[in-house]
Amino acid sequence: MATTSGAPNRASTTSKRSTTRRKPASAGTRTTSSTSRTTSRTSTNPVERAVLVPVGAYLLAGDNLVSTVKGFAAKYRTRTGFEREIKRYERRGVTARNRLERNVRRARTRFERELHQRRSLVEKTMRQNRRRVNRELTSVRRDFEKQSGAVSARVERLVSTAQGLISS
């Protein structure tokens, strides 16, 4: 607020009041007049915006390039700086190689473990099936032997009965 020259550090009581009541501005809703002017200007003229966007991108890319080149110049200006960067890149490469080797070993171990588990499961199933087939085969053989023994006994009875009838 403006102060009068007669009373230092005192607020002026002669300021003009607005007829509409102002809402208190919060930190998130404050805007300056320049940003609102810029926003309204860019949103109302799409042709100008279509031209200004690539120009702005070009200028930003140029700024980034300049800062990158300056960064490289600062890093590689001396032999020690160059060697430091080379060692840094080498360490990063070694770290990446070690991570890759670790991941490959982990994947190989996982694959071998799964393969072993599957092979063991197949072998176990084969053993169970072989035992079941052998049991059923033995059971069928016994049943066949019993049946064949009963059939042969019956055939012998029939033959002896037939011989008895023929001879009488």
Short description:
This protein is mainly α. It has three helices and no strands.
Protein model, in words:
This protein is an all-alpha fold and 168 residues long. The chain has a domain at 49-163. It has three helices and no strands. The protein has helices at residues 33-44, 46-75, 79-167.
Which key features would you list for this structure?
mainly alpha, disordered N terminus, 0% strand, 168 residues
Strand and helix map with partners:
Elements lengths: L32 H12 L1 H30 L3 H89 L1
Q: Based on helices, strands and strand pairing, what is the structural class?
A: mainly alpha
Q: Can you tell me the residue ranges where pLDDT is under 50 for at least 5 consecutive residues?
A: 1-10
SS elements, strand count: 0
Gyration radius from CA atoms, angstroms? 50 Å
Q: What can be said about the biggest beta sheet? A: none
Coarse morphology: elongated
Order of helices and strands: HHH
